[in-house]
Amino acid sequence: MMIKNELLSAKKADFTSKSIKILHISDVHAKKNNENLFIWDEIGKLSFDAAAITGDFIQDKHTEALPHLPYLRELTKKVPVFYVFGNHEVCERSEMRELFESAGITVLEDEIAKINISGVFINILGIRDYYLILRHGFGNIFEMLKVLDPNDFNIVLSHQPQVFKYAKSYNVDLMLSGHTHGGQVRLPFFPTLFAPGQGFLPKYGDGWYHENSSNLYISKGVGTTVFPFRIFNQPEISVLEVRF
Fold this sequence. Notes:
By secondary structure, this protein is of the alpha/beta class. The chain has helices at 39-43, 69-78, 93-102, 130-136, 139-146, 164-167; strands at residues 2-9, 19-25, 50-54, 81-84, 106-107, 111-117, 120-126, 153-157, 174-177, 194-195, 199-200, 207-211, 214-218, 236-243.
């Protein structure tokens, strides 16, 4: 298990000398055998101000998340927690919303939440899964991106990182994504070789991307899909510290 501590310097003059820490969890792919419960012991050792879960918490059914529910409830007692759906949850959205909201989690599907952490006003826009955007169009997404206040710190949560090529043209300071698993199978010293929806040598693989004045961080995720192993690619949870 890799715990990544990442640092981002934000240029917001009004927030000088302040910082926030965000826990980022993605692609847990919980299954019926209580897989990946080990992450909660590690998370309990960390310090952060808010948490973002960027989709694919389950593999097939919302019931696969039930063993994690007590830990999620404890997490929401400590910090605000935000969640967006991944492609594995497209057909379970109503069930996952009900389950996660019962744990105190804010579920965002083309919705914006606003919070204040240590005097920093943060807008969090959670976007529907990219496959649904391709099916139903981008109109609503663009309208929501337009209303992000440039005077606040704006975070976009999107399971699939392809959304970044559009979000970077708006007042988006930080976007958090997953989906790629960092390739799941890697070669030493090579970047992500393949990502679903992007193919071989994807533009957005894992880690940091900086374009225009926007920043994207892609988690390698925790679990697996298609085949049940990771090669040269440890499971990852991240704490991103944003300094103003």
